[in-house]
């Protein structure tokens, strides 16, 4: 991730501001969001009791940003490209992992676990052989 944490926080808050205003008609001063002056407590109060996946995703992105896990793919632990994060700051998968997960399973793929049959054979062989 090449943007600073502060820049990404402001970008996420901007998305949050636009969503709250458009959907819930919450009209806090844009300055509060634009400067990042809004506290985590205020963000939690704004998103509380709103069963809204977009708000949940933006809130989770802010939490990941604070915990320094923002921009890291939850599947492969590689950095997510800045262009992808700019397009969608709630993103949790890198482009490659998203392609892999959206690819139809091959004939030999066990879709329940995402492992090929060859991989499963090696895994179970290792379990059967004494160390």
Keywords:
131 residues; two-stranded antiparallel ribbon; 2 domains; mainly alpha; Four Helix Bundle (Hemerythrin (Met), subunit A); 3% strand; globular; 7 helices
Molecular structure report:
This protein has helices at 5-24, 30-34, 40-47, 53-66, 82-87, 95-102, 117-128; strands spanning 109-110, 115-116. A hairpin with a 4-residue loop joins strand 1 and strand 2 (115-116). The chain starts with a helix and ends with a helix. By secondary structure, it is mainly alpha-helical. It is built from seven helices and two strands; from the N terminus they run H-H-H-H-H-H-E-E-H. The chain has a two-stranded antiparallel ribbon. The longest helix has 20 residues, at 5-24.
Q: Which strand order spans the largest sheet, edge to edge or round the barrel?
A: 1-2
Strand content: under 5%
CATH class of the largest domain: Mainly Alpha
The CATH topology of the largest domain corresponds to Four Helix Bundle (Hemerythrin (Met), subunit A)
Percentage of residues assigned to helices: 55-70%
Q: Nearest-angstrom radius of gyration?
A: 20 Å
In short:
It is built from seven helices and two strands; from the N terminus they run H-H-H-H-H-H-E-E-H. With about 130 residues, the chain is mainly alpha-helical. The protein folds into two domains: about 5-95, Four Helix Bundle (Hemerythrin (Met), subunit A), CATH 1.20.120; about 95-130, no CATH class.
